Amino acid sequence: MDTLNLELNLEEFKDTILSESTLLYIEDNEDERNEALDVFTKIFKKVITAKDGVEATNLFQQHSTQINIILTDMEMPNKNGIEFMKEVRKKTWDIPILACMELDNLSILPQVIKLKVADYIFKPIQCITALKLFNSILEQIHHVQILEKQQQELSQFKSILDDQTLVSETDLSGNILYVNDMFCEVSGYTKDELIGKNHNIIKHPDVSPKIFEKLWTTIDNGKVWIGKIKNKTKNGLDYHVKATIFPILNSKGETQKYMGSQYLITDEELEKQKLKKYIMSQRSEKIKNDQNQKEIIQIEVDKAVSKNAIQNLQKIEQLNFAAEEMKKEMLRLRTIKEHANKRVISLEKEAKAKEEKYEGLQKAYQLKIEKLHAATTQAYEKFDVVGKRNDALEEKFAKAQEGIAVMQGYIDEYRSKIEDLEDVIRSLEGDIIELKGE
User: Residue 155: how many CB atoms within 10 A of its CB?
Assistant: First the structure.
């Protein structure tokens, strides 16, 4: 392959996982080693080279934490490829190894496979093919690591939720698969009473069916639903929650089940109801007091008009006294009213602050769920692409194996013919000897 074509073919590997990886390359043939290094060093972040198994073992011990993948020759002086692979596997089974061998050395293949070889290639090395194999193997490992990390994060996140919220999981039909202790404590049901039952066992009859229709439409489309719901305990008591419900995907990106996390907000809802009742009662009391004051004054005025001057004077004095007392009482009532209004305003601010706090927590929680959902979906898509590439490579390998088998058949046939020729030659040589003897 000329230099221009090689450079064009190497372009597809420039921004791949190879550019972040370290390769340990072992090859005793200097010409082959230098030719391959000329390509590998342009793609890999770092390439560590060795000329035999002993040197490779020492380098591996020094740089094992940095090495991401190994390409080793099988036939080497001092220590061959099998012996080197055994040294590596004593320390780790996680680093992928590619075996490089001659076509007529397939007898070692069973030993290589037992040492968990990721793949193998035949000499002379086709560098572009080798790079494709490297990339496919490392991408697959990378995606598996991402999935494992996300599963671990999801498990940790679920553990946190278990300590702070009501958590439940259902199948696609809404039948309960899991509930945490807090869910049971609030609902009044035991886990045995809930597992296998439909989630509507805690449904409150006051909640509009439209809310649940919207909920199911949202999560069936793979989205997250957030809202307030009024539920019913086993004993028929009401409790209010702010719920977040989202789908859990399987390895194919399909919805496997649903998970719900609920914050208990019963106290906030009851506080709101109390505030409304208190405000209404204060307004009613004010109207009632104003009306009573007007009626009292009118009665006293009517009495004063019907009596003589002295009595009127006395009454006026009494009325003045009563008016002063009434003013004091009105002042006292107004003071009480002002304190009550301040208390109402304070309670309203407190309730609003609590609601804003929970809104903030809920939004942060929703954002993390959406990021996890998006990252999981992307990882599954990449994993599927890697799987398809791997299937294609396996198909090519199967065809190559078939070709090798056919070639081996030809070789065996030619060996048989050569043996027949050797028998004929030996027979002729015997005849010649006999003729010379005569």
Answer: 9
pLDDT reading at 76 higher than 50: yes
3-class SS of residue 179: strand
For domain 165-264, the CATH superfamily is PAS domain (3.30.450.20)
Q: What contacts 358, CB < 8 A, 6 or more positions away? A: 242, 263, 265, 268
Rounded Cα distance, 44 and 66, in Å? 13
Lowest mean pLDDT among 41-55, 84-98, 147-161: 147-161
More confident residue, 56 or 352: 56
Quick one: tokens of 428?
């002729």
- Which of 43, 153, 66 has the alpha carbon at shortest distance from 379? 153
* Cβ atoms within 10 Å, residue 157: 15
Signed CA dihedral, 277, 280, 286, 289: sign only: negative
- The model's pLDDT over 337-386, given as tens digits with 9 standing for 90+, comes to 677 667 767 766 776 776 677 677 667 767 776 776 776 677 667 767 76
Tokens of 257: 């089940």
Q: Please, is 213 exposed, middle or buried when counting C-beta atoms within 10 Å of its C-beta (0-12, 13-18, 19+)?
A: exposed
Return the percentage of the chain with pLDDT > 90, whole number: 21
Q: Which two tokens stand for residue 414?
A: 């030619």
Predicted TM-score (pTM) of this structure:
0.43
CATH 3.40.309.10 fits 3-147, yes or no: no
Enumerate residues 6+ apart whose C-beta is below 8 A from 380: 249, 251, 252, 253
Picking from 298, 291, 393, 287, the residue whose alpha carbon sits closest to that of residue 337 is 287
309-437 vs 266-306: helix crossing angle, rounded to 10: 170
**Secondary structure of residue 206 in the 3-state scheme:** coil
